[in-house]
Amino acid sequence: MRLSRYFMPTLKETPAEARIVSHRLMMRAGMIRQASAGIYSWLPLGFRVLKKIEQIVREEQDAAGAQELLMPTIQSADLWRESGRYEEYGEEMLRIKDRHGRDMLYGPTNEELVTDIFRAHVKSYRDLPQLLYHIQWKFRDEVRPRFGVMRGREFLMKDSYSFDFDFAGARRSYNKMFVAYLRTFARMGLKAIPMLAESGPIGGDMSHEFVILAPTGETEVHCHRDLLDFDVLGSEIDYDGDLERVVGRWTDLYAATDKKHDPASCPVPPDQLVEALGIEVGHIFYFGTKYSKSMDAVVAGPNSEPVPVEMGSYGIGVSRLVGAIIEASHDEAGIIWPESVAPFKVGLINLKAGEAACDRASDEAYAKLNDARVEVLYDDREARAGAKFADMDLIGLPWQLIVGPRGLAAGVVELKERASGERQELSIDSALARLTG
RNA sequence: CGGGGCGUAGCGCAGCCUGGUAGCGCACCUGCUUUGGGAGCAGGAGGCCCCCGGUUCAAAUCCGGGCGCCCCGACCA
Q1: Facing residues of A282 across strands?
Q2: Is this model's pTM higher than 0.90 or not?
Q3: pLDDT tens for each residue of A377-407
């Protein structure tokens, strides 16, 4: 993509309303534009990141055996009356009427809808387990939206729903999501710590919040330091095998948010305790037969007896992750994208657009990167070097390939790694080899 | 939902108290000079001053009512 033609309205000054760093940087980088309180348009650069994150979530869900479907944003109130939540949910639910005066709502979540789908089609225990998910926009009419996309009213969320015949099956489903979540966040370059969360009316240990560590996070996190070193990407996961060991490795070590942490009874010796700040980006939850009973989602067991299915739901805040990743990865100059979610891998800077040698070398590098299917944003604008460097640092692409008259005279270009700031002078060919290899 | 603040050019703001030609910086357009870390000079374009009503010869400014947005707290992916 040529920057001269790309819609990327960067700002030198910070809009007044943006208080936290991710919101400020997203506004300045031209990723989003606020439409109303807590509601945002995603401009091309921001949209690319959103899609990258969504795709990682999707791949890991699929790998865990979940199946993607898509449920609507607008739901009928009738289903919610069945579960009893239409009255229960309160002001956070955006309620609307259609032209016939029927009560509708913009879904804040999808348990009712997915349960309705399930009960209509699944009648036998032989068809279990099922693990369904979708990635869809939700709306919760927060009293006070803030922090940009981190706490919007409209937000993109991945939510999965598991259906099992018995508790043991529900636990297997839960474990699948547990591991899939670890992998999902790790692939985005995040340190995600699962924390035992309020388990609701059912009790037990099957509710975890996933908190990623970020210096500007809101939640205080206390955990054993070994949790930070665990690697979940290095080994293949057999989702049909026994996941208890993998899950146990993570849950055996102490991790608690501030609400649950009591320094007096903390089992971790001080020298092994990490105290950090974090942001909640995922939540997995087993809730048993809460909806299957109220909504009559029943399958026939081996003796034809009707059995309400055991369910769980599993959410990831996809749009929140865009902000959360920035909170976890930025510096004074701007965003530092992990390569897996970066809107482009390489920013190609032509330091002197309009000069024949620079244009020729830059155009050629651009063509070669495109041919190699490397995502590249080519700054071919006729702007000053400083402005180009500043914009490129701001939008945080992992690599900058800098082509200028000074280097070309010596037969070299510069390759700068955004994260470390390290620059190397290389021949064009070896720089390209590094980026395409 | 309690408390506070703010709506003036795309963005950041001044002007409002004390009514009288709507301003500054950045961004934008033209030209010249400049050219490896957000250039300089000159010229230019861009405003229902949030909306409605009131007071007044005259309202961005004073008064009343609405709407929007933000911040702090209680609550959430």
Answers
A1: A210, A316
A2: yes
A3: 999 999 999 999 999 999 999 999 999 999 9
HSE-CB of A388 using CA atoms within 13 angstroms: 23
Please state the ipTM of this predicted complex.
Answer: 0.93
What are the tens digits of pLDDT across the range A335-346? 999 999 999 999
Using DSSP's 3-state secondary structure scheme, residue A86 falls into: helix
- Helix/strand/coil (H/E/C) assignment for every residue in A314-354: EEEEHHHHHHHHHHHCEECCEECCCCCCCCCCEEEEECCCC
List the domain range (segments joined by +) for residue A404: 346-436
Nucleotides of chain B in contact with protein CB (under 7 A) are: 1-2, 11-13, 25-27, 34-39, 68-77
The DSSP bridge partners found for residue A131 are A162
Q: Are A417 and A383 part of one and the same domain?
A: yes
Sign for the CA dihedral angle at A141, A143, A146, A150 comes to: negative
Q: Is A98 exposed, middle or buried (0-12, 13-18, 19+ CB in 10 A)?
A: exposed
Look at residues A271, A300, A335 and tell me which one is the last residue of a structural domain.
A335
Query: Nearest nt to A28, CA vs C1'?
Result: B11
